[in-house]
Structure formats: C-alpha cells, structure tokens
Amino acid sequence: MLVKTRHFGEIDLAEDKVLTFEDGLIGFEDCKRYTILYNNEEGGNNTISWLQSLDMQELALPVISPLSVLADYNPIVEDEVLKPLGDLNEDNVIILLTLSVPADLTKMSANLKAPLVINADTKKGCQIIAENPDYVVKYNIYDLVKKSKEAKGE
After folding, report:
1. CATH superfamily for domain 2-151
2. Which long-range contacts (CB under 8 A, 24 or more apart) does 125-130 make?
3. What is the pLDDT along the chain (154 residues), one digit of tens a residue?
4. The pTM is what?
5. Where are the domains of the chain?
C-alpha cells in the first residue's frame, strides 16, 4: 500500500509492516496504525528510527531502543496491561522509547517513563506507563547518541 510520510515522502509499505496500537499513543489516541521506518535501506542499524503514523502523515516520532540508553532498562508494569498484545517473550517483544529532539540538540531526551511495547508476531503495540520510580519522562541522551554515531563513523 502507498503511504505518505513526514520524512520519507511516499513509500510502498507491505501490509505485514503495519503495527496496530488499539488505544493509540498518549496525546494521539485516534492514530492507531503505525510502521517503523529507518534512515537507510537495511533498517535496524540506526541508533534512531521513526514510528510513522499511517493515520496522520505529519506524525512521525523518533524512537530508540532502550538498551542504547540504559543497559539495564526494565520497565515494571502489570501483566494485565500487556495481555492485549498476545504472548510476549524475549524473541518477539520490541521495546522503544520516544525521543524529544528540541532545537538545542544537547537537550535531546528519551522518555523512560512511557515506553512503547510491540509484539513482533501479532504486530500489536501499546504505550505503557512504567511503575519504576526512578524512570523519568526526560532522560538526557545527547552524549549517548553522539558517542554511538562517532563509533559508527557517522
């Protein structure tokens, strides 16, 4: 299917790349369908990728793997919240953090408090609120991203 995107223009997207967030995302409850886009053809090799809404082309959120931010990231959430996604295990669960990228890049932050959880098998996702008291909404990651790009020669 052809979809218009914020950063990549019009792309041909396979149906199996569509992710469904039944409750939408915080602040975007009406947007239910998304896909993950990468800045290169191979995909998956970037530090930052994009969660692109298929319901509103202007909505594309930069996202990052939490393990790129905190090696021991482990959000606490009640199992009931994740049941609609289907059976989750270490092979099919994808966890992403949304990023805030202001004009001053040194203030770039990741939202540790409200990660996105996706079941790669069912293509269902949800945004949860982590119960961890030490996880914050704005966790500065500028230095981490800068070091990662330098290590990759970017």
Report:
1. BH3618-like (2.30.290.10)
2. 125/19, 125/20, 125/21, 125/34, 125/85, 126/21, 126/22, 126/23, 126/81, 126/82, 126/84, 126/85, 127/21, 127/23, 127/25, 127/26, 128/75, 128/77, 128/81, 128/82, 129/77, 130/75, 130/76, 130/77
3. 999 998 899 999 999 999 999 999 999 999 999 999 987 655 555 688 999 999 999 999 999 999 989 999 999 999 999 999 999 999 999 999 999 999 998 999 999 999 999 999 999 999 999 999 999 999 999 888 777 777 777 6
4. 0.89
5. 2-151
